[in-house]
Amino acid sequence: MLSNPASLIELDWAHFDPWAVMPVTHRISDHPRLQIEELVELAKRLESKGRIRAHTNAAEAGTSFSNAPDLHPVKQPLVRTMEHIAAAQAWMSLLNVQTDPIYRELVDEVLDSVQPNVELKDPGMSYRGGWIFVSSPKTVTPFHVDKEHNFILQIKGQKTIYVWEPDDVRVVSDRARDRFHSRHDRSLITWREEFRKLAHCFKVGPGQGAYMPSTSPHLVEVGDEPSITVSFTYYTDSTRRDSLIHKIRGRLSELGLDIPSAQGKGVFNNGLYFGARAARAATRAVYRATGRRVGEENAVYARAENA
Ligand SMILES: [Fe+2]
User: Fold this and answer.
1) How far is CA 171 from CA 175, 190, 215, 305, 307, in A?
2) pLDDT (tens digit, 9 = 90+) per residue, 133-154?
3) Lowest mean pLDDT: which of 130-139, 178-187, 209-218?
4) How far is the CA of 234 from the centre of ligand 1 (A)?
């Protein structure tokens, strides 16, 4: 365990903008929980819960991120694949590691150390999660977006992270973001090779990484060595607000309404937000009355499927 919880992730906090991509450095490459032997033990615990995602090196930048494990399945047992990752030609992700008591401590150790700085500009941290990627050389994480803010940190080997700003409609349109939030559907998020020249391109090794705001499109390529990478993710008040606005925009657009661009439409978006909040409060009251789960995004930790 590292003794000093302060600043496990370093970045230019004076210029930190929660909705802008930034390079970071970190001090956790030697953390015992992130070495391959302990990750194999974690994989053994997560496999039976369906919390390992994997695909082969046949997946490319333009492969559907959501469908990559079905399109290019790893046929070998997953734990064994991880034990032989250098030659396995496989990409693996240990999902929702915060559900494991030992790795929940790691998630808290790292996010506790950045929370005071994050909260100065982006209050309301919730839904903490951890994701650990163990990859063979020359494998690819296909182009996609996620809902959470994300500190992605390189632990072992080299990677190239291509990431675009969360409001860059040249690579992901408002409509695609609306659809992603309203239906968790990434089908309108499609790759074109010319996007590369529009990206922030971070070539990272151990001790380096990036901050990627909610719905920043990204594509990650592993170098010539096996790679270990960890992502620490969370929601805040601002991600919940942004997600709700896009969700309502998506539903209105399904009704055939012509929705203005999400950029520079503060009054329209505020109207959507406060209207949606009122509707959601009414829905939650009904849920509570009928004993159903509510307020999930405000939970301290991300909920995993099958939890
Ligand atoms: Fe991602």
Assistant:
1) 12, 8, 11, 30, 34
2) 999 999 999 999 999 999 999 9
3) 178-187
4) 13
- CATH number of the domain within which 140 lies: 2.60.120.10
In whole numbers, what is the pLDDT of the chain averaged over residues? 90
**Angle, nearest 10°, between helix axes 174-183 and 237-254?**
100
* AA identity, residue 306: N
Non-local CB neighbours of 87 within 8 Å, separated by 6+ positions: 136
| Distance between Cα 27 and ligand 1 center (Å) | 22
Structural domain including 213 reads 9-238
Q: Is residue 300 part of a domain?
A: no
CA of 2 to the centre of ligand 1 (A): 27
Beta strands in 205-305 (DSSP E): 208-212, 218-222, 227-235
Per the structure, the count of domains in the chain is: 1
Q: Is residue 4 part of a domain?
A: no
Rg over alpha carbons for the chain, rounded to the nearest Å, is: 19
- Ligand 1 geometric centre to CA of 256 (Å): 30
Summarize the confidence of residues 108-136 as an average pLDDT.
97
The reply to whether 36 falls in a domain is yes
104 is a domain residue: yes
Distance 144 CA to ligand 1 centre (A): 6
Q: Give the Å distance between the CA of 111 and the centre of ligand 1.
A: 18
Q: Which percentage of the chain shows pLDDT scores above 70?
A: 86
Report the run of H or E that residue 161 belongs to, with start and end.
strand 159-163
Phi, psi dihedral angles at 175 (to 5 degrees)? -65, -40
pLDDT at 1: 40
